[in-house]
Amino acid sequence: MIEIETEDGVELKFRNKNANPWTRNSIKIEANITNLESNTEFPLFTVIKGTEENFITKFTFKEKGKYYYRSFGYRVRPGDWDSVHDDSVIYELPFEDGKRIKIGQAYNGKVTHQGQFAYAIDFTMPIGTPILAAREGYVIATESKFTEGGFSPELWTKANFVSIQQEDGTVANYAHLNKGGVAVRVGDKVSAGQLIGYSGNTGYTQGPHLHFEIHKPNKKFEATTVPTVFKTQNGERDTIKEYFVYWKPKPGESKPVDFLLDEDIILCKLNAKRERIACGSENFKLGESVIVSLDFIQPGDHKIEVTVINLEQSVKPLMLEWRSRLENVYEGGYFELSKSPYIQGKWKAEVKVDDRFRKTLNFSVGNTNIK
């Protein structure tokens, strides 16, 4: 805020700090004055743009030479509440080529994507996943000091993030980043596809993911999200859907026609925290837990049947059967390998979905210290 005293009154101006040509800040200005007047009505809602001083108004003396008083207050929200999002823009997925990421929550998600956050997207991903800018812009704010995450209200303001102002005056927010997981600085201009940070699990969250939103402020100083479209394996202008899997298509890659890719039917190990590890394994030890894992690229209600057969010994086949659930990040049925030496050797797991054979998974069970 800049106040300039003149012979007949006071001029009021504002200038953006950390300014660049795209900088827009929405601001509410209040004035408390005595023996001064202006043609401008207060409180004043306006937008401060660019790098130059923005003239607001001039207050002139009602009675020159007599006592006068002025006091100004203001509140700022990054972005332009008068902006119109450029709906012709196609956003890039905010992660690297070759990764396939499932959506944990999309538009109007039941957990937190309601009201002003209705058009936010949660990309489920492991901690430390590189995050790329989905559209070019200038970095206007970052935070990287927080360590804690959980589904607790006191953590709402403790998410690490990068905020990038875009050419149309809207702001892109990338949140829940890892501690120290910011790779840009305030004032940097970033290009679409540029590394800006690393995913985490900080702030108000039920698990590791990237919260992505495009928003603009309103005159209640809330961030109001706006819908966006992305280039995905499904097309040039794809609207992200909840529980679907997305990736960056390779040149010439056709749109998938199935809800499940055979390469996403694999065996994993189950650790003590009930997490999938060592996915793609073909060798297991006695005493371990084995998961038959299916990652659907489109959610749906499907019957899954797995028959586990020992190829070397006369052991009764193990049968697994369950139905997929729309909200699951992945589908998996597991079985435990007892420490009996009779189950050592070669096995296969035959997987059917909706009574259609999909894949045979071959694996071996080896010895370990039997107690």
Jot down its keywords.
371 residues; Glucose Permease (Domain IIA); Immunoglobulin-like; 3 domains; eleven-stranded antiparallel beta sheet
In short:
Helices cover 0% and strands 49% of the residues. It has 371 residues and is an all-beta fold.
Walk me through this protein's architecture.
The chain is an all-beta fold and 371 residues long. It folds into three domains: 2-78, no CATH class; 91-246, Distorted Sandwich (Glucose Permease (Domain IIA)); 260-366, Immunoglobulin-like (Sandwich), CATH 2.60.40. It is 0% helix and 49% strand. It has strands at residues 2-6, 9-14, 24-34, 36-37, 44-49, 54-61, 69-78, 91-92, 101-105, 121-124, 130-132, 137-143, 149-150, 160-165, 171-182, 189-190, 195-199, 203-204, 209-217, 223-225, 230-232, 235-238, 245-246, 260-270, 276-277, 283-285, 289-296, 303-310, 318-323, 331-336, 345-353, 356-366. Strands 9, 10, 11, 12, 14, 15, 16, 17, 19, 20 and 23 form an eleven-stranded antiparallel sheet that branches. Strands 26-32-31-28-29 form a five-stranded mixed sheet, with no helix packed on it. The protein is elongated and about 110 Å long. Residues 117-220 form the M23ase beta-sheet core domain. It holds the Pfam family Peptidase_M23. This is Metalloendopeptidase.
CATH topology of the largest domain, what is it called? Glucose Permease (Domain IIA)
Q: What is the CATH homology-level superfamily of the largest domain?
A: Glucose Permease (Domain IIA)
The largest β sheet comes out as:
11 strands, antiparallel
Distance between the termini: 75 Å
What's the CATH class of the largest domain, please? Mainly Beta
Query: Considering DSSP H and I runs of 4 or more, what fraction of the residues is helical?
Result: under 10%
Structural class: mainly beta
Strand content is over 45%
List the uncertain runs.
none
Mean pLDDT: 93
Number of strands: 32
Rough shape? Answer: elongated
CATH architecture of the largest domain: Distorted Sandwich
Organism: Leptospira kobayashii
Protein name: Metalloendopeptidase
Pfam families: Peptidase_M23
InterPro entries: Cell_wall_metabolism_enzyme, Dup_hybrid_motif, M23ase_b-sheet_dom
